[in-house]
């Protein structure tokens, strides 16, 4: 079982810095145009996707993990929401070019090869489309051992500073790159009641899971102070073919 399988079995609804409260606050500040076509990438158990759909957006949501998606589908069904869920890998999104008004991502890109992920986000966005990504960033010193341990346990593929992420976004052809929200620490992940959480209770008797819990605590105690997060906001150029820089 890897870290994402564990999150899936836990039924975690908001597995990102700031939790669901931060997501709602962010969406409030963004005031997306009514009925926007939104793609949520790495939707996990679908809590954000459902929130977006409840707010009138036309939502498509993808994730690589089947169990996450099954829980997301059941969540949407219980909430009587019409969301298109698809199992897909960020590196090859099953959508036509320039299809979505908004691509919304929370704590996913760090687990992928960032170049292909950013290229895919940009490809599926309409000209002038909006890209939002909340990701963990490096806020202190990085060592080889730290990188290796975090990558090994969480499956993270890239650990970069906020400045490096901004540069990556520009290199990938996004314009108007800005940081909407940032923190030098991972902060408290708002604990709030998720009425549709499906938690696999047998997890707590599983020794492997208990060991994973202890490793997680150890890693956060050791490296948590050097990790923060940022919400990046960027746009695609109005010109379909352009590789325009900011
Ligand atoms: C930390 S969880 C965040 C889930 C959700 N965005 C949230 O905030 O609760 C990361 C999610 O990204 C998904 N994921 C990781 N790599 C992916 C990839 N290459 N393509 C699609 N989804 C991926 C995982 O399955 C998992 O659901």
From TrEMBL:
Which domain of life does the protein's organism represent? Bacteria
Q: Which UniProt keywords apply?
A: Methyltransferase, Transferase
Gene Ontology process terms (BP): methylation
UniProt GO MF annotations: S-adenosylmethionine-dependent methyltransferase activity
Q: In which pathway does it act?
A: Phospholipid metabolism; Lipid metabolism
* Record-linked Pfam families: Methyltransf_11
Q: Please identify the protein, giving its name as recorded.
A: Methyltransferase type 11 domain-containing protein
Q: Which organism is it from?
A: Paenibacillus xylanivorans
